[in-house]
Write a structure and sequence with these properties.
The protein has about 260 residues and is of the alpha+beta class. About 20% of the residues lie in helices and about 35% in strands. It has a single domain, classed as Roll (Carbonic Anhydrase II), CATH 3.10.200.10. The radius of gyration is 22 Å and the shape is globular. The N and C termini lie far apart (about 85 Å). This is Carbonic anhydrase. Keywords: Lyase, Metal-binding, Zinc.
Length: about 260
């Protein structure tokens, strides 16, 4: 009898360990995309089976100015950034440096309010304008109460030092998979986004799951930061953490001036 019980317990233990290992393997698979090697962006469609990465409305794109529809700036976009919004934490997620925000700053786009959730960076830029690649691109990701997403894309060129980037980089370096609590105020109104012209189009997230139906707003005028600030961000992120250009597939890009 004892032998049977011992054998039964052994089988249960083996099955349990097998299930545990399977779950661990699945969890690892969910995070195995990268920007190089066999898990680089050109393989995302294959390795991210339940994603939109193979869709027809993907981002980023190359914006050719002569091919866009031009309209006068209307009240479709309202920037509602305040000096009292709090950054909750910064993390190095292995793909980028990401600053997460507490609820405060928001935008209103096409009569829907979107709250700023996080800011992250790509080096070099993901979007191009007339084929030009910029040293860096900053994404400000906003989500509405209904789960809709609007991303503001800011291209960066090298020049004078930026106080905003000096603030961001005061929390660096940060090692991969590490999180730092911040809980400090930031004033994003210094970006003066209301004064910039922008392109808009319907696209996707530029990282898996590459969710589509994302509102993209890419500002034509770049922000300026120093070479040293670009290099400091670069040292804390994977080399070339950008997704390659995606086909437009008949989508219309609108220029707001």
């Amino acid at each position: 009898m004892n032998t049977k019980i011992t054998s039964l317990l052994g089988i249960v233990l083996i099955v349990t360990m097998s299930c545990t290992n399977s779950k661990k393997h699945i969890q690892e698979d969910q995070h195995h995309w990268s920007y190089s090697g066999e898990t680089a962006p050109k393989y995302w469609t294959e390795i991210e089976k339940n994603s939109d990465c193979g869709g027809k409305h993907q981002s980023p794109i190359n914006i050719i100015h002569k091919n866009v529809d031009s309209v006068k700036i209307q009240q479709n976009l309202k920037i509602q950034y305040t000096p009292t919004t709090l950054i909750s934490e910064v993390e190095n997620n292995g793909h980028s440096i990401q600053f997460d925000f507490e609820r405060g700053d928001s935008i209103n786009y096409k009569n829907e309010t979107y709250y700023l959730k996080q800011i992250h960076f790509h080096e070099p830029s993901e979007h191009k304008i007339n084929g030009v690649i910029y040293p860096i691109e900053m994404h400000l990701v906003h989500v509405s109460k209904t789960g809709n997403i609007t991303v503001l894309g800011l291209l960066g060129e090298e020049g004078d030092e930026s106080q905003l980037f000096e603030f961001f980089e005061s929390f660096l370096p940060i090692e991969e998979d590490m999180v730092k609590d911040i809980h400090q105020k930031i004033d994003l109104s210094s970006l003066f986004l209301e004064d910039k012209h922008y392109y808009s189009y319907s696209g996707s997230l530029t990282t898996p799951p590459c969710t589509e139906n994302v509102n993209w707003i890419v500002f034509k005028e770049p922000i300026v930061l120093s070479v040293e600030e670009v290099l400091k961000l670069k040292k804390n992120m994977p080399i070339n953490n950008y997704r390659h250009e995606q086909p437009l597939n008949g989508r219309i890009v609108t220029y707001h001036f």
